[in-house]
Amino acid sequence: MTSKDYLSTLFALDGRVAVVTGGSSGIGRAVAGALARAGARVVIVARDEARLAGTVEELRAEGCRADWVSADLTDREGVRAAAEEAAGVFGEPDILVNCAGVNLRPPMNELDTEVWDTTLAVNLEAPFLLGQRFGPGMAERGFGRIIHVTSQQAHRAFVHSGAYGVSKGALESLARSQAEAWSPHGVTCNTLVPGFVMTPLNARLSSDPDKVAELAARTMTGRNGLAEDFAGAAVFLAGPASAYVTGQSLFVDGGFSVH
Ligand SMILES: NC(=O)c1ccc[n+]([C@@H]2O[C@H](COP(=O)([O-])OP(=O)(O)OC[C@H]3O[C@@H](n4cnc5c(N)ncnc54)[C@H](OP(=O)(O)O)[C@@H]3O)[C@@H](O)[C@H]2O)c1
């Protein structure tokens, strides 16, 4: 067996269909690209059509198979419609990546029910609903990979964690419950846990050089995360190599969480 063939038995995603929410920007965009380059047909889901189309165009130009669905994941009907539309493109997904997220960061005293509801809807309820829609089918077919993207704020308070930390902590619990339900049927459910990653989500923090340097110093690698840092971990959790890894939280954070 050549080394390329051997690596394929571990990591190739040929023949798989993936749905990646938040796949038009930042970490989700890098993950969608990684899964597509590893062989999966990928449908990305977010709101902004221009960013969705631009991402898909780039992937297709590389020879990948990709498409997009525009949907607002803040309401249940939007999630339901997105799921049906996404499954209609390449068929029912084998891989679901829940990466769409919002971080609105009001100070605790100003955290109102509107921010609370939006945060929990996008960051927690949409992953739950998509899991309910796709998880049982994956289990019935005997293979599935569910990957949630949480945050170091699932584990510690950090710059007005407010509702955001709550949503991410609960998402890690959801992954464990999904793992309990579906792992016996070949469906693993795990979370990727970013530290501080330079993406549009934290534009305010990442445009402050002092803050950026201070956060980089809290890692062990001496730098903040880049979206591309998630490519390898996502391919691993989406593919054959991770069949015995389930219910876990994989920190991709340069050592931020253990420093
Ligand atoms: N960057 C970090 O430091 C960091 C740290 C820890 C965890 N994370 C997590 O990593 C994930 C990705 O974050 P990122 O930094 O890559 O952020 P980003 O670049 O802002 O991307 C967020 C994505 O989510 C989509 N989205 C947001 N609200 C949506 C909604 N209501 N309906 C549908 N799609 C929606 C956005 O597209 P549209 O706006 O077009 O809808 C975009 O594709 C998030 O879950 C975030 O919580 C990030």
TrEMBL record:
The keyword Transferase does not apply. Transmembrane segments: none annotated. Pfam families: adh_short_C2. Keywords: Oxidoreductase. The keyword Oxidoreductase applies. GO terms for molecular function: oxidoreductase activity. Residues 16-185 form the Ketoreductase domain. Belongs to the short-chain dehydrogenases/reductases (SDR) family. This is SDR family oxidoreductase. It comes from Streptomyces griseoaurantiacus.
